[in-house]
Write a structure and sequence with these properties.
The protein is of the alpha/beta class. It has a single domain (1-11, 30-105), classed as Arc Repressor Mutant, subunit A. 39% of the residues lie in helices and 13% in strands. The chain has helices at 36-47, 52-59, 63-83, 112-117, and strands at residues 8-10, 18-19, 31-34, 86-89, 94-96. The protein has a three-stranded mixed sheet with strand order 2-4-3. Strands 1-5 form a two-stranded parallel ribbon. It starts with 7 loop residues before the first strand and ends with a helix. Bound molecules: zinc ion. The site of zinc ion (ZN) has 6 residues, from loops.
Length: 120
């Protein structure tokens, strides 16, 4: 029986949502979407130096899931850098951690109010 996917816990939303080659018009370039849960796993591992186990615990998924999502995120980021595409960070299946999140890794401002407002 397939288990439904649990949303992944993130400690904040990314501060920057779009990257691309300088001096090129964004509308002429192919777009790659990095999901916010992919971004969070990439951030924990490559920016903060978490192991797969630590990342799995923090995000609330299996280590094998972390490995798969991480490799996929790396592939997207490499593609953007090597071939000059636009990277957009958005979407995905995630929840922002609670205020009582132990060892919260909130580098970024929390934005829960705006999400709940649902009006953008
Ligand atoms: Zn947190």
């Amino acid at each position: 029986m397939a288990r439904p996917n649990k949303p992944r816990v993130i400690c904040g939303l990314p501060e920057y949502h779009m990257f691309g080659p300088k001096g090129r018009r964004a509308n002429t370039l192919e777009k790659v979407v990095l999901l916010i849960d992919e971004y969070e796993i990439f951030r924990l591992m490559d920016h903060l130096g978490f192991t797969q186990e630590e990342t799995a615990k923090q995000v609330g998924v299996a280590r094998t899931t972390v490995q798969r999502v991480y490799m996929n995120a790396r592939k997207k980021i490499a593609d953007v850098i090597v071939t000059g595409k636009i990277l957009v960070i958005e979407g995905g299946d995630y929840v922002v951690c609670d205020d009582d999140c132990e060892e919260c890794l909130r580098p970024l401002r929390k934005n829960r109010k705006r999400r709940q407002g649902g009006r953008e």
